[in-house]
Amino acid sequence: xxxxxxxxxxxxxxxxxxxxxxxxxxxxxxxxxxxxxxxxxxxxxxxxxxxxxxxxxxxxxxxxxxxxxxxxxxxxxxxxxxxxxxxxxxxxxxxxxxxxxxxxxxxxxxxxxxxx
Length: 116
Fold this sequence. Notes:
The chain is globular. The protein has one domain: Ribosomal Protein S5, domain 2 (2-Layer Sandwich), CATH 3.30.230. Strands 1-2-4-3 form a four-stranded mixed beta sheet, with helices on both faces. The protein is an alpha+beta fold. The protein has helices at residues 12-21, 54-71, 91-115; strands spanning 23-27, 30-36, 42-45, 79-85. The longest helix has 25 residues, at 91-115.
């Protein structure tokens, strides 16, 4: 399954709304802010100050996106998610971190719809 939805400059209002009004989860320097949406998208911020080499930044993005793709059918498709790093964990820690944070979003999604 490929994810064709991504944020562009036209989506500034969506990004601002997600950052300002969205819920957030964080763990070991990785922060996920999310907001309910009909068709979800994901945006990953990694500052160049944190990692200078684009190859390493792209590897981290790939790890997080592959995790997102695996868990997307479980409830992530109904949220816009913005992911950024306050402090950068090692490559081995990124996958378990992203899985645990995405699982929290899925649990909140299931809890919200079971209460309704």
